[in-house]
Amino acid sequence: MITREADYAIRVVLYLARRGPEAGTVASDSVAEGMLIPYRFLRKIVQRLVTAGIVVTRRGKGGGIALARPNASLSLLDVLQAADPRSLQLNVCLDQPSRCALSRGCPVHGELHRVQSVLHSHLDELTFDRLV
């Protein structure tokens, strides 16, 4: 399930992607207001996106947030993994098989793994140049 944090991260990147790389940085409060994101959440989300190399921030006059990469090289999968990687897991056994004693011989585990792979592949193909 896509968490609120992951949803907010998508909104941030979408907002910046719509502006285009030539627009430069945008003030954090403009992003929060424009995408209906509480400012306190925005700061947390932006930090995760910075750590993942998706956005850059600049302090001071003329500072703000900007995309670190072109829209075409940034996928929905990238953003979701940066914001909340657990939101992409269909079941805990796919990420941590040791948490389920039955995962080795479980017929459902293999099928969920295949579905998970298809989901990741599709999300990786959805780049922000296509989404804007």
What labels would you give this structure?
132 residues, mainly alpha, Arc Repressor Mutant, subunit A, two-stranded antiparallel sheet
Give the SSE layout.
Elements: H1 4-19, H2 28-34, H3 39-51, E1 55-58, E2 64-67, H4 76-83, H5 92-95, H6 107-125, H7 128-131
Antiparallel strand pairs: 1-2
Helix pairs in contact: 1-3, 1-4
What does it look like?
This protein has helices spanning 4-19, 28-34, 39-51, 76-83, 92-95, 107-125, 128-131, and strands at residues 55-58, 64-67. The radius of gyration is 17 Å and the shape is elongated. A hairpin with a 5-residue loop joins strand 1 and strand 2 (64-67). With 132 residues, the protein is mainly alpha-helical. Helices cover 54% and strands 6% of the residues. The longest helix is centred in the C-terminal third of the chain and has 19 residues, at 107-125. The chain has one domain (4-131): Winged helix-like DNA-binding domain superfamily/Winged helix DNA-binding domain (Arc Repressor Mutant, subunit A, Orthogonal Bundle). It has a two-stranded antiparallel ribbon.
List low-confidence stretches: none
Quickly count the helices: 7
- Domain module count: 1
Tell me, briefly, the overall form. Answer: elongated
Strand order of the largest sheet: 1-2
List the secondary-structure elements in sequence, H or E: HHHEEHHHH
Percent helix? 40-55%
- The Cα radius of gyration reads 17 Å
Give the CATH topology: Arc Repressor Mutant, subunit A
CATH-defined architecture:
Orthogonal Bundle
Alpha-carbon distance between the termini?
A: 23 Å
Q: CATH superfamily assignment?
A: Winged helix-like DNA-binding domain superfamily/Winged helix DNA-binding domain
Proportion of residues in β-strands: 5-15%
Largest sheet: 2 strands, antiparallel
